[in-house]
Amino acid sequence: MAALIFLYNVSLTVLKGRKTAITNVLLLGLWGLALLFLFAFYNPANLSLDKMFWWYIVHLWVEGTWELVMASILAFLLLKLTGVDREIIEKWLYIIVATALFSGILGTGHHYYWIGLPSYWQWIGSIFSTLEVIPFFAMMSFSFVMVWKGKRDHPNKAALLWALGAATVAFFGAGVWGFLHTLHGVNYYTHGTQITAAHGHLAFFGAYVSVNLAIITYAMPILRGRDPYNQVLNMASFWLMTGGMSFMTFVLTFAGTVQTHMQRVLGENFMDIQDGVHLFFIMRWGAGLAVVIGAILFIYGQLVPRREIIEPTDQYESEGA
Fold first, then answer.
1. Closest CA to 178 of 216, 134, 130, 115
2. Beta-carbon neighbour count of residue 213 at 10 Å?
3. Helices first, then strands: H and E counts in the chain
4. Residues in Cβ contact with 317 at an 8 Å cutoff, skipping those fewer than 6 apart
5. Of the candidates 261, 289, 283, 282, which has an alpha carbon nearest to the alpha carbon of residue 273?
6. What is the pTM of this model?
7. How far is CA 228 from each of CA 136, 153, 166, rounded to the nearest angstrom?
8. CA distance 149 to 19
9. How many other β-carbons are positioned within 10 Å of the β-carbon of residue 207?
10. pLDDT digits (tens, 9 = 90+) for 159-171
């Protein structure tokens, strides 16, 4: 119900205001999220069929409709922060949308490898999942090119940092780390290991967390009437959270590589393998602590006003001379 109310408010606001490519793509993505969730209400008795419709929802949210939402939010931010002409940004947006839908829909097949569906999905999933790197690379390129072409020196540097960071981390997390184990010959060994967790952590942080923090960083000071605000803490939180999540991803990748070899190749016992990768999980805990500290700094920087520094006046001025 809350999601429907949110969708209702956003839709009527957009329809009442100026209709642009950015708002149209945003609405397409949000309505796609809502409509795809209807598959959750279909519960077939056949387990393979059930999982197929399950991935209709999850995959087409992540590599389909959410990419449209993310691209539209980034386009809005870069339009406001860089001053690049709307026409240029909209052309990039159309390219990103087209590649996201072209690769993402059939790319769902990489979830169909081992759930009982026909074997041709191994080839369809592998080919189109490989192409899923393209829209994320396009988003990253789009962000940096817009900043390079930008004519505006916007005071909110933190929002620009988060926008660039979101596009970059999403490319590596969803694109590169997704590609590492998307081919069915590789996925046969790595499926369900810590390599999957590494991909999931970095992809979620880039495509979901960072883009939300970017729009919050841009909008919150304006909404609260506190512009400019404490950007130093905000940017420090960016590097702490992004650095911590990146290190966590590398740690999980190495843990997954060891796990894959010991469990899927050598056939060792699962719990014995967990003892073997214990050190990686300790390092993962440390990386998670850095992310938590970064999140606290972000919240503090947003909610607590910065003290204004009052310059000392001349002695005669202070005495009213």
1. 130
2. 25
3. 16, 0
4. none
5. 261
6. 0.89
7. 31, 14, 22
8. 25
9. 26
10. 999 999 999 999 9
